[in-house]
Amino acid sequence: MRPQDDKYIFTDDTDYSDSSKSSVWGTEEESTKKCIINSNVHGSWLNLCAGDGRFNNLLLQRANKVVVADIDINPLNKLKRNTPDSLKNKLTTQIFNIVGAFPFQNKSFDGIFCVGTLHLFSKNVLQEIVSEMSRVLKEDGIIIIDFATDIQRVQADGTNWVVDNEPSYIKVEAIKLLKDLFNNYKTEMVFDYSEPEKVDLGYKTYTFSCNFILLKAESL
């Protein structure tokens, strides 16, 4: 699917047809894996903007059911190919754009997971997304997200590529934003750094690095 940033369609126009288990978005951060392992992951979970499936098998190992959602079917097809047969009975896919109403009933999920995406949206759009998260989350539910800040995408010629209309949050700004967005939750934040890593989207290659905030929010 071609990206359309003006419509909040932040796809990558990447060919996911190969069966490689490696994510085009790089390795899984240890702090995020540790957060999943140490959290009470159970019942039904929603993996928003799941892409090609970083961390999803870890969620499947712990939850009874995981709904993986994305606006693009292609990365989800790769995710399904790379899901062990022993876990596929727990997996469901759903296609939708998170800037609109989520296609789920109120209080549908025990947990929501979303990484690598929310930093792309403006504050007003984020407010709507978090509102929908809260609507479909059960009263004792958990939300785990990461939020990239101070992003560097360095191309081969040394220039920094910036996604069109990306807000480009800095760390101190993002901390305040997340505290405001999740002020009705009990929150924990871990601050980490993604080391420079090559990202190859086929049509574009760059080295990505960032600070990121790992947020765990529990319903009060």
Helix and strand topology:
Blueprint: H1 30-38, E1 44-47, H2 56-62, E2 65-70, H3 73-81, E3 91-95, E4 109-114, H4 123-136, E5 137-154, H5 171-181, E6 185-200, E7 205-219
Parallel strand pairs: 1-2, 1-4, 2-3, 4-5
Antiparallel strand pairs: 5-7, 6-7
Q: What's the tally of helices? A: 5
* Main pleated-sheet profile: 7 strands, mixed
Shape verdict: globular
Q: Number of domains in the coordinates? A: 1
Beta strands, count: 7
The CATH topology label is Rossmann fold
Helix content: 10-25%
Q: Provide the succession of SSEs.
A: HEHEHEEHEHEE
Short structural summary:
With 220 residues, the protein is of the alpha/beta class. The chain is 23% helix and 32% strand. A 7-stranded mixed β-sheet has the order 3-2-1-4-5-7-6, sandwiched between helices.
How would you describe what is shown here?
The protein is an alpha/beta fold and 220 residues long. The chain has a single domain (18-219), classed as 3-Layer(aba) Sandwich (Rossmann fold), CATH 3.40.50.150. 23% of the residues lie in helices and 32% in strands. The chain contains 5 helices and 7 strands. The chain has helices at residues 30-38, 56-62, 73-81, 123-136, 171-181; strands at 44-47, 65-70, 91-95, 109-114, 137-154, 185-200, 205-219. It has a 7-stranded mixed β-sheet, sandwiched between helices. Strand 4 (109-114), helix 4 (123-136) and strand 5 form a beta-alpha-beta unit. The radius of gyration is 16 Å and the shape is globular. The chain starts with 29 loop residues before the first helix and ends with a strand.
